[in-house]
Write a structure and sequence with these properties.
Layout (H helix, E strand, L loop, with lengths): L2 H20 L5 H7 L2 H16 L4 H32 L6 H24 L8 H11 L6 H26 L6 H21 L4 E4 L14 H4 L16 E4 H34 L4 H11 L6 H18 L10
Parallel strand pairs: 1-2
Amino acid sequence: MKQGAGRFEYYLIQLEELLLKASVTDSPALFLYKNDARTKLFMLEGLSKLYAGMHNKKIFIYALKYFKSLEDMLGAVDYYDGFAKDFLKDDEMPATVRMFAEEKKEKMLQAMNLVLRKKKWLTSDLYRTKKIRRKLKKADWLAPEEEVESIKRFYKKTIAKTIEFYVETGTHFSDLEMQVHDLRRKLRWLSIYPQALRGCVQFVDNNGTAPELIKYLIPEIVNSPFNVMPAAGNNQHFVFIEKNYFLALSNIISALGKIKDQGLRIMATAEAVENTQFVDQKVSMERAFTLNHVQENGLNEILKKAKEICEPFFYEDNLSKLLAV
């Protein structure tokens, strides 16, 4: 089996094990959520995006569609479950708001259970994953050395597109979801691809710690198990990434995630208020600000903070130094 196919197989087997166990539970979606199926799907989604940018685009887009569908649904469950638990800790949050988040989580689980059955993810013969596997077998997998060069080109191109996206929006963030959250997604894929590639990507430290990087290398980031590359295994050809620039990237992803969550908490509160108190969007936002003890310009402050986080990172051109020459 070619190395590229083997990477998919590694995560497909893990996903199949979870699907078989989920299929005999009352709520397969809940089982998958509680047993971190989302991480496996992230890896498969990342591989599909990456290989679709390298060769046999139609085959990998087919796989991507199915992996992303499940991952998106688990993401929706996680979104409402997180806020349901968060609101439960807040004595000032109205019971209706708490119940709304919990009910939305249950609806997301029910919807996912329907999709799991309709799209045949849960059959005893694992119909859906086996069909994806049959599609992948038709791919023109590259030889390891050629594949590594293609991965480098894809990664470099993805970096350039991410920088371009920031240049177009970063100096004037005006939308939490379409700009800040979307930028974070793009940055996060740059950290997921190396993990998904199962040892093909390794760290190097060619330049030591540049002075501008020191502020990013905090213990929370440096000591995170998520910032360790998989062992090289049987890979003989590698893509090399500058370790400290990768850690800086991880810092930015984490920092944007924290302020994104602050903004999403306001948005989730407003959604709950609008749907349980039957008020218009303007009033629901006003009440959401009050319930979260945030000034009415709270979202603007979050957007301003996002700019403060991103501006030095991109000004220093850290992202373009990520891939070792």
